[in-house]
Amino acid sequence: MKKGRLGGLLWLVLGLVIILSGCSGAVPPMAASRQGWAATATVITTREPAAPTIVLPTPTDVPVPSRPPEQSVAVVGTAVAELAPTALSQVTRLEIFTEVWRLIHEYYLYDDFGGVEWLMIRDEFEPVILAAPTDAAFYEAITRMVARLGDNHSRFVPPQAARREDAITSGREEQVGIGVIVLPLGDGLMIQHIFPDSPALQSGLRPRDRIVAIDGAFFSHGDLEGPDGSQVRLAVVRPGEESRDILITRRRVEGAITPTARLLPGGIAYVGITTLWVSNMDQQVTALLTEIVAAQELRGVILDLRSNPGGWRTVLAGILSHFVSGEVGYFTNRQGDVPLVIEPGSLDALRGMPLIVLVDRSTASYAELMAAILQSHAGAVIVGVPTSGNTETIYSYELSDGSRLWIAQEGFELLDGTDLEGVGVQPDVIVNEDWTRFREEDDPGILTALRLLNP
């Protein structure tokens, strides 16, 4: 059964650590003028704070599963229970394998399968899946087969992981741990969200704090989750400060993935959106912007899409609706083109308002589309570095065993024919500094945006 449309990355790594990603006219309105507050092809340089000296255990030779850099994760479990051997019959295995292969053969975006010999792939993997000693090995083989497409979007999701995807979509997280959503970086886990009334909040942790070690082990070899009432020792680095140890008692917590919004000096609204995967994220953003517009007359908006991996098309359209309307581009597939038409939203006060969009190399999929559409149709100035260039739309197909197949099925082009795949959104103002190493008040991207909006 085919279900939904999604643009974004959703990878499974380290057991049940889940990456939050990953990806429906009229003539569009005139773009808002950039005159007097924008710059083009400008490079902004800021001195990056020196990283503190951190003494950590030497990682073992056990390889860490590959994953895209700077993608949000919620640690939601400690282990994956292996299924009993041969729980699926050979007939059922062959049916699932055949269905996965057929769906890709019929619906994959590229009729040449990106240079992959798809007929030969079937011949290669059919004996492998039939000889798999356990269901876990069977699912792993299908996962490897789909990964051969190499598009960073298409993927096979086993039943247990598919249930986790459904939970993430709700935007609610329940965990026995410290109550945080983190962003994996090369040297630690940067805290993005802290749940209310959580052990993390009560211990004084803040967004942008970086967890570099867990129970004396390098962060990638530790676990924030654990039994209710157990303790975990974290080595934490706050931007501009040295590493410190914090002892936290784990407990069951629940929280939501939410956007952030605040008024900055000069009547500037800041809105941070870390994912479009949460199904009501557009409604949450609308509610925050409505409050801000009612509280003060605005002179500009900063929309922060850094490390946003994309999400649902309805969320994309809902947020865009406050800034643009009409046909803004079209989705392409093997059957033809489908225009993306944005219906006007409720916040007319934001139309034509000076707009800055912050992006980085991990801004991906529908977050990239949002930035590009705002750049071309709302006169937004893009600040940061080129985005990831991973903009295919994926469709989900529910299989009989509860597993799920995501297929890259559509590309996207702006009205002028610009295709972002493999290229990304190009910034108007380049800011190279690693924003994750700065306190928010010193963030070079935000400071650059404020200078552009308050010349």
Automatic annotation (TrEMBL):
Gene3D superfamilies: 2-enoyl-CoA Hydratase, Chain A, domain 1, 2.30.42.10, 3.30.750.44. Residues 167-216 form the PDZ domain. GO terms for molecular function: endopeptidase activity; serine-type peptidase activity. One of its GO terms (cellular component) is outer membrane-bounded periplasmic space. One of its GO terms (biological process) is signal transduction. Pfam families: Peptidase_S41 (PF03572), Tricorn_C1 (PF14684). InterPro entries: ClpP/crotonase-like_dom_sf (IPR029045), PDZ (IPR001478), PDZ_sf (IPR036034), Tail-specific_protease (IPR005151), Tricorn_C1 (IPR028204). This is Peptidase S41. It comes from the Bacteria.
